[in-house]
Amino acid sequence: MRIAMIEVGHWHAGMHLRSFQLAEGVEIVGVSDHQPGVAAAFAQESGGRAFERYQDMLEATAPDFVVAMGTHADMPAIARFVLEAGIPLAMEKPVGLSANDVAPLVELAEKRNAFVAVPLINRYSGMWRQLDELEAVGRVGARTHYHFRVINGPPERYELDGGGWMLDPAISGGGCLRNVGIHGIDGFLRFVQGEAVEVLSAALSYRAHGKAIEDFCAALLRSESGVIGTVEAGYSYASMKPGGDFEGRLAAANCYIIDRNDALHVATLDDGALRTPSIPDQGERYDQFGRDTLARLREGRPPIASLNDCCRAMQVIDEIYAKARRTPYRS
């Protein structure tokens, strides 16, 4: 599998490189970044030819698969170019500034029957396997509520990683909600199994760092059948420590499952059991993405998260911003 990587100046580039190199039979044939010298430096670690223009790279290397990143403002054009070139693709979230950017790409991908994977990596949490196994034997019951919290370190970490554009909402589309809260929104949508979702209330805060992007968001959601979701996202963890403050939690009539980054807590009412198996942490979930994505492509299976999944999450995020009575763009 000959792989090309687009916009390797992105802070996730190293994670994706490691993840895809863990897959069997992978060769990195090209890397690109619009910033002079960035691709050449990355090529020393990854191999492959370095380019400043991804268009030139794709023409020169003819890869079997593309891993694409970039600023959120640039992502739609990158995704469209790769889709129109007919190359299977992994596209970093959120794929645009809003759902309006992503929806036309969903239509194009469906028209071309294209393979597009989005690394909504918390789908690799063991909580979903536990839920699915209980569901298969009728031991879940009515789903009642879902909670997700991810509080990372201050937004200056993006500047340290060469991603200072993340602090400009005109280029990033927003702050912690758009960037990391999307994992929680995607999880709620998975939990409610395709039901329509209403945003009941939401609040944004800019107090911790005084930037143009929000540094904390809290949202209250409800599905059409009445499942409640609470999502918290922030850049207010008082440390640059990887992982920050993370927890996922889901509840149903017969089970309660908590994901605390590297351990699960699984309680089931019908047998009174409490289990605490270890699970992949956030870094290991990125490691799974490359191998799993290429296996799904080779076997003709859909990606674990698609462009349509990303678009649905972005639609809810847009509604959260609207419900909070301000857009992510500050005048």
Attribute tags:
six-stranded parallel β-sheet; eight-stranded mixed β-sheet; 331 residues; alpha/beta; single chain
Describe the structure.
The chain is an alpha/beta fold and 331 residues long. It is built from eleven helices and 14 strands. The protein has helices at 13-21, 38-46, 54-61, 75-85, 99-112, 126-136, 156-160, 169-172, 176-191, 282-299, 307-323; strands at residues 2-6, 27-32, 49-51, 65-68, 89-91, 116-117, 143-151, 197-205, 216-223, 228-234, 245-252, 255-259, 264-268, 273-275. It has an eight-stranded mixed sheet with strand order 8-9-10-7-11-12-13-14. The protein has a six-stranded parallel sheet with strand order 3-2-1-4-5-6, sandwiched between helices. Strand 4 (65-68), helix 4 and strand 5 form a beta-alpha-beta unit. The radius of gyration is 20 Å and the shape is globular.
Number of strands: 14
What gyration radius follows from the Cα positions, in whole Å? 20 Å
User: Could you list the spans in which at least 5 consecutive residues all have pLDDT below 50?
Assistant: none
What would you call the structural class?
alpha/beta
Mean pLDDT: 95
How far apart, in Å, are the first and last alpha carbons? 47 Å
The largest sheet is: 8 strands, mixed
Order of helices and strands: EHEHEHEHEHEHEHHHEEEEEEEHH
Helix fraction by DSSP (H/I, runs of at least 4): 25-40%
